[in-house]
Amino acid sequence: MRNLFVLCALLSLAACSSTNNSTSTVATGNIPKSKGYYKVGSPYKIDGIWYTPQVYETFTEEGIASWYGPGFHGKMAANGETFDTHALTGAHKTLPLPSIVRVTNLENGRSAVVRVNDRGPFSDNRIFDASRYTAETLGFLNKGTARVRLELLPEESKIAAAEAMEGRISSQYASNTQQPIQTAQPVNTIAAKPLAPIAGYAPLPPREQDIETAVTQNAQPSVSQGVYVQAAAFSIPMNAEKLAAQLKAIDATIIQPTTVSGKTLYRVRLGPYPSLEVADKSLNKVIAAGQQQAQIIIE
Prior knowledge:
This protein is of the alpha+beta class. It has 2 domains: about 10-165, RlpA-like domain (Barwin-like endoglucanases, Beta Barrel); about 205-299, Alpha-Beta Plaits (2-Layer Sandwich), CATH 3.30.70. The chain is built from 5 helices and 14 strands. The strands form 3 sheets. A 6-stranded mixed barrel has the order 3-7-4-6-5-8.
């Protein structure tokens, strides 16, 4: 086996040296999955710059993301897993491998939970390299890059690490088996502001005194997985019920209780939707109804 550091550097350099804006179809089909392994890694140097992988209790970062894929489908990622361009995976310079992160496209509000199992990117001051399917899901496949927010999900990351240490293939490392989701035009621009490190949740602009300004990202959803439009999160259940009733004219609403630092929040969501294209249409209506902080959530 080749030296792990050399393998990591070569894969990352090749994968992240440029952004592929092509939307050509990649051959589908099951590829043999490697279980991979858990790794943090020693400090390494690329193009004269040192990077120090480490374990984080909390981690939040904003910057430019790109995507990579066709030339690396079926090859080995930096932690020994098989790179699958049809899975929700990506590359980062210093996070432990694997890590689970929430990636939010700040240009259109789309959000997805992604498995980090590769190193990079190392060009153009980018902070994250996404698989083709991740880029498609987040809506920047055709554009090639997008400004994103990365948030480490601590509990999910611990589970992924334990599975890797035990030599098991995580259920969070599965190819997309559905039809490709249609991308749509950006509908909700979120102001990109520097964030302080936070533990598993994302700040949202406050609108009313009783609205929680933090929505959890590490709680298990209480309904079946899918694509949702999240309108707001409240600390007072009556206010969540009031908003849900108002938004029923747009579509069916649900209220998802969740816990953040021992405090219960009530998330008002519409959906689930069969595709991002359908969710985008609903998001437009929710924003027009006055919920400017609404966003698409994929869980």
